[in-house]
Records
---
Amino acid sequence: MAAVEILQRDRLSEHGARQRLKKLLDPGSFRELLDPFQRLESPWLERQGIVAQSDDGVVAARGRLDGHEVAALAIEGAFLGGSLGEVSGAKIAGMLELAAEANRHGRPTAALLLLETGGVRLQEANLGLAAIADIHAAIVDLRRYRPVIAVSVGPVGCFGGMGIAAGLCSYLLLTREARLGLNGPAVIEQEAGPAEYDASDRELIWNLSGGEQRHATGFADVCCVDDAAAIRRQVQDWLRRGPPPRHRSQRIDDYRAVLARLDAAEQADAGRARSAFSLTQGDVMEGGL
């Protein structure tokens, strides 16, 4: 690929959550709800000696994308690693629930989720878990009507309960730099030891949970270059298609069959994972559709 083309890319990962949404939505259609001026902060962080953020790390907006109405949400990975608590989780769940209600009243509304998150905020453990459960339920409700599209571009990735949320979405786009998983590398190493998963081995981590690998093993629908225009084109295509005939989370029997063939005593590597989990295959998308 030409060096000039690479330099000309508008890398979504280099922008904050609010600007990422504005890059993807139709010009002038971004309308933020519960913005920082509403001072909707977590009441729990100050008790831990942590400075709260006035939007609690989640940008919630309404807008249009290729003319389609969307509930647009972005998690700010730079704030506490994109972790979710009571307030930020409620913002996401509430927006998705409102979108589902709009569909039931004849106003087609899809959802776009920009996920850069380590999962539940430890300072708000049970409250965060309850909020993420509400997010899961809201995604399953909304996806019956219009697509729920998730995008993760890095550098934080998408882990924990929000990794499950990504799997529930109608479509999932990752860049090569993004990562997707349930537990992060440090957590796995802490619980199982470095012989199981060395959190300092960056090549191992991206080979197992990076965007290209997750696409090759069927856990993501597209692996795209980190470019706002290319990502927007892919999201447009999914909005035009509508919900898929069968969501990934409905393929329970397929995944059970794969797990039944795995030998958990063998150390996982990229090749073995691709061989076992390649339920869907496709080429890495270089420039969008």
---
Amino acid sequence: MIVVYGIRERLEPIKARLSDVIHGCMQAVLGMPEDKRAHRFVPMEKADFYYPGGRSDAYTVIEINMMAGRKPETQKALIKMLFSELERQLHLAPVDVEITITEQQPYQWGFRGMTGDEVRDLTYNINR
């Protein structure tokens, strides 16, 4: 699951394209299928969104939650591709993007009535 935070006036106009860019990177690096897009957008009022100095109102936070198993090199490749593609396709400067990846063990995920470690029909590999 991915949660994206940004200032409402900047996030709303680009959120569909932003979702496409994020998912494209997830597909390219992690092998995620087209139908596994789980994105949540949290548009915030400027008065409620504090961010570090040196950033613009385009500052965007992307939190990626995933099952543990991907190699550090794979996670780094995802982060770098996101920076590159967000800048190329949406003109979001890398200084205005913050990306975090949080991993949980498969038994800590619950979906389709079971835990992640019980699932046997994933169409992608979490051990890359």
---
Amino acid sequence: MLSPLLANIALSVLDEHFTAKWEALGSTSMRARRRRAGVPAMRIIRYADDFVVMVNGSRNDAEALWDEVTAVLAPMGLRLSEEKTRVCHIDEGFDFLGWHIQRRNRRGQNGKKAVYTYPSKKALLSVMGKVRSLTTRAKHRTLGDLLISVNRVLRGWCNYFYHGVSAKTFGYLDHFTWWRIYGWLRKRHAGLNKGTLVRRHLPNWEIRDGRVEMFRPQKVAIVRYRYRGTRIPTPWSSETTVSPAPVA
């Protein structure tokens, strides 16, 4: 857990640098006038050592950030990873924190566009790899043990991605996992034909062992994220209260 903490401390210089550039653009109306005049506007989004710099400007403005960011990081003894860093247009899309973020045409909106967030292919392949590893024949003693392990992986993954455009991905993951567990059952009960296996272990084609049943990603409700900014409620009071000291 030390690495994310150190990254947050070291890369705070980037936050300060781009915050100062943003504030130098002035008020909302002044920023709009400067953008119309060709002055680029930039904002940074950062999580530990992963960050994205959004640029309202030309590709040259974005590519100029290579040298600028390098100069900011140099005093901290840090440098950009050329393999992991790229310049792209939002219409091309990019991966960030497991998400694929891309601006696309809105269905039935006459060419209007919106930014969508999908689970990235890398994130999907990662969770599929975990399910594949868990469903090897000798990994678990009983179906219940297997379901408990697989459910933990599926539930955690879906809880992270259910705020995006994830319904089709969840359906694909559900299908993949079901057939992996079905294959595990076939190998564990090689002497049973398909009809007997389904009757004994897959009632109504549902995978369960007693009270433990397979977590179904395709049944997870998608709750699309809506930007709320400063309207997000907080449990903390904005005023500091001081409790009176007890009197002896």
